[in-house]
Amino acid sequence: MKKVAKRLQNLQSKVDKGKIYDLESATNLIKSLASAKFDETVEIALRLGVDPRHADQMIRGAVVLPHGTGKKVKVAVFAKGIKADEAKNAGADIVGDEDLVSSIKEGNLDFDMVIATPDMMAMVGKVGKILGPKGLMPNPKTGTVTLDVAKAVSNAKSGQVNFRVDKKGNIHAPLGKASFEANKIKDNLLELIKTINKLKPASAKGRYIKKGSISLTMSPAIEIDSQELMDIK
Fold first, then answer.
1. Cα angle: 172, vertex 175, 178; to 5 degrees
2. Per-residue pLDDT tens digits for 167-199
C-alpha cells in the first residue's frame, strides 16, 4: 500500500491541480504520468451543458479515431446470407443470427462491438436487455445498424469509438494508449471533439462544453481549457 501511495503522490506532484492546461501541454504531460506495468488507456471526460432528459439533447454518435484506440476490437455481427459473407470477409470475429442470440443468452459476450443489418434488429431485440446495459446495442446513430456491414466492421477494427452522454450530461471515451506519441493522442482528441461539437443541439442553452479533462487508467486528471475544446471545428 505504501508503494501505491508513494506512486500516486509522485503523479499528483506532476499535475498542477489548480491549473487549466492547453491541449498541447495536456497531451505532452499525460505521457509523463504513465506508471503502470501495462499500457494504460488515455481517456477523456467531458461535462456538457445539455439535459439528456430531452430527446434532442441526448448526444450520441461515433467517430473513427485517426490513430485508432490501440486496442484490438472483437466484432460480432447479426447478419445472414450475402451480408453475413460480407461481414466475415471484412474481418468480423463472430457472425450469426438465431445462433448468436442463443449464444448471448448463454452468457457469451466475448466481443467489444455489435453490428447488425436493419432486418436483424427484431432478432437483436431478443437480447436487448443483455446488450443494452453493457453499451453494446447496435444503433443507427453510431453506424452499427447498417446494410454496409463491411464498412462498419472496417471502422470498428480501425478504431471507431461510440459515445453517448450519461444522465448527468457526461461523456467518457478512450483516446488511445499511453505508448502513443503525444501528437497522435492530440489528433485523436481533436477528431473526437470535432464530432461532438457538430452534434451540439440548437436547444442547448449556455456553455456547451462545461469541463474537460484527460487521464490515464491509473493517473490523476489533467483539466483542459474548455473554450479551446469548444473552438475545435
1. 120
2. 999 999 999 999 999 999 999 999 999 999 999
Q: Residues 24-42: pLDDT tens digits? A: 999 999 999 998 899 999 9
Q: Where are the beta strands (DSSP E) in 31-144?
A: 41-48, 60-64, 75-78, 94-96, 113-116
Closest CA to 75 of 40, 43, 103, 116: 116
**Amino acid identity at 224:** I
What is the amino acid identity at position 116?
A: A
- In total, the chain counts a number of residues equal to 233
How many angstroms separate the CA atoms of 115 and 84, rounded? 11
Vertex 143 angle, CA 75 and 232, to 5°: 110
Pairwise CA distance, residues 193 & 172, whole Å: 12
How many CA atoms within 13 Å lie on the side-chain side of 175? 31
Q: Is residue 17 within a helix (H) or strand (E), and if so which, with residue range? A: none
The residue assigned the cell 479533462 is 213
Q: Are 98 and 178 in contact (CB under 8 A)?
A: no
Q: Which residues pair with 176 in a beta bridge?
A: 42
